[in-house]
Each structure stands twice: as structure tokens, then as C-alpha cells.
């Protein structure tokens, strides 16, 4: 509960909630504290304003998030724990890639079987990628029987499913 406003039911003296007292308390708080208090008292308006801001400034919001992620990731990679995680991630990727092999001829055969179209949306105007039906992260093999052609949007949307 905020010290700025005490409900009358909890206050021993109702004078502590007078407009003058509240104004004095507001004057003593920082701008960030006042914003936090306003958001606590007006949650629906706050959410609405946030959604509107994100809709108007989508690109700059995404750029800030991307930059923050890069900065945090870079800082984490500089620690011994971050370097260990990176080393383990690369080792896992190498071990997964050794579990099978798809030749260029096999890939061409797969593409021909799907008429050079995405296996999910059937488009043929986008570049096609190898999509693992059973993801490598879920124990799937990197072999011709586990691969279908997929456009970038479909492959990204599918994720590790």
C-alpha cells in the first residue's frame, strides 16, 4: 500500500487524507514515484496508454528491445558463466549436426516431391529452407525422412513444434 494515500477505513485520523496533505506528499516524491503511483491507481488507463504508445512507436520500441537484448547478451557473454553457456550451446549444435546428413541430391529430391513449394502454405514465391518435421531439439534426426521444404515465415512460426 502506498504511503501517499491511506483509505479512511485504515486511517486513525481522517485528516491525514486531506487534499493538502496528499499534495504535500506528492511534492516530496520524485517524478518516477508519482508515475508509479498513478499507474497503481489507474491500471486500465495505464495499460491503454501503453498499448497506444507501442502501436504508434512500434519500430522504435522494437529497436530499443533489440539493442537492450544485444547489450545484455554481450555483457552476459563476457562473464565466465556466459562463456560456459556459449561453449555448451556450440557443442550441442555440433553434436546434433553429426546425427545425420542430407546431400544436395536428397534436398533436390525433397523439393521436387513438394513441387518446389512450402510444405505448409504451398507458396513458391519465397526462398525455401529445410524444416525438420521433428525438431532437432526434440530428438529429431537431420536426415532426408525428417526434412520438408518451408518458407521462412512458416518455418519461424512453427518454432520447435
Offer a concise description of the structure.
The protein is mainly alpha-helical and 161 residues long. Helix content is 56%, strand content 6%.
Q: What does this molecule look like?
A:
The protein has 161 residues and is mainly alpha-helical. It has three domains: 14-56, no CATH class; 58-96, no CATH class; 101-158, DNA Binding (I), subunit A (Orthogonal Bundle). The protein contains seven helices and two strands; from the N terminus they run ααααααββα. The protein has helices at residues 19-28, 31-41, 43-56, 58-77, 80-97, 104-113, 152-158, and strands at residues 128-132, 147-151. It has a two-stranded antiparallel sheet. Helix 4 crosses helix 5 (80-97). The protein is elongated, with a radius of gyration of 28 Å. It starts with 18 loop residues before the first helix and ends with a helix. The mean pLDDT is 79.
Keywords:
2 strands, 3 domains, two-stranded antiparallel sheet, DNA Binding (I), subunit A, 161 residues, mainly alpha
Largest sheet: 2 strands, antiparallel
End-to-end C-alpha gap = 43 Å
The value of Rg in angstroms is 28 Å
H/E series: HHHHHHEEH
Strand residue percentage: 5-15%
Determine and state the CATH class of the largest domain. Mainly Alpha
Strand order in the sheet with the most strands: 1-2
Task: List unreliable stretches of 5+ residues.
Answer: none
Tally of distinct domains? 3
The average pLDDT is 79
List how many beta strands DSSP finds.
2
Shape verdict = elongated
Amino acid at each position: 500500500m502506498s504511503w501517499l494515500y491511506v483509505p479512511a477505513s485504515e486511517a486513525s485520523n481522517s485528516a491525514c487524507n486531506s487534499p493538502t496533505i496528499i499534495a504535500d506528499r506528492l511534492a516530496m516524491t520524485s517524478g518516477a514515484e508519482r508515475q508509479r503511483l498513478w499507474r497503481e491507481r489507474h491500471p486500465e488507463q495505464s495499460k491503454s496508454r501503453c498499448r497506444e504508445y507501442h502501436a504508434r512507436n512500434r519500430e522504435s520500441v522494437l529497436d530499443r528491445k533489440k539493442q537492450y537484448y544485444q547489450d545484455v547478451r554481450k555483457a552476459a557473454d563476457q562473464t565466465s558463466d556466459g562463456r560456459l553457456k556459449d561453449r555448451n550451446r556450440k557443442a550441442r549444435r555440433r553434436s546434433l549436426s553429426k546425427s545425420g546428413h542430407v546431400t544436395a541430391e536428397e534436398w533436390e529430391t525433397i523439393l521436387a516431391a513438394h513441387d518446389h513449394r512450402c510444405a505448409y502454405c504451398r507458396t513458391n514465391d519465397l526462398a525455401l529452407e529445410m524444416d525438420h518435421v521433428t525438431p532437432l531439439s526434440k530428438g529429431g534426426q537431420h536426415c532426408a525422412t525428417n526434412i520438408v521444404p518451408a518458407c521462412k515465415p512458416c518455418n519461424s512460426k512453427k518454432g520447435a513444434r
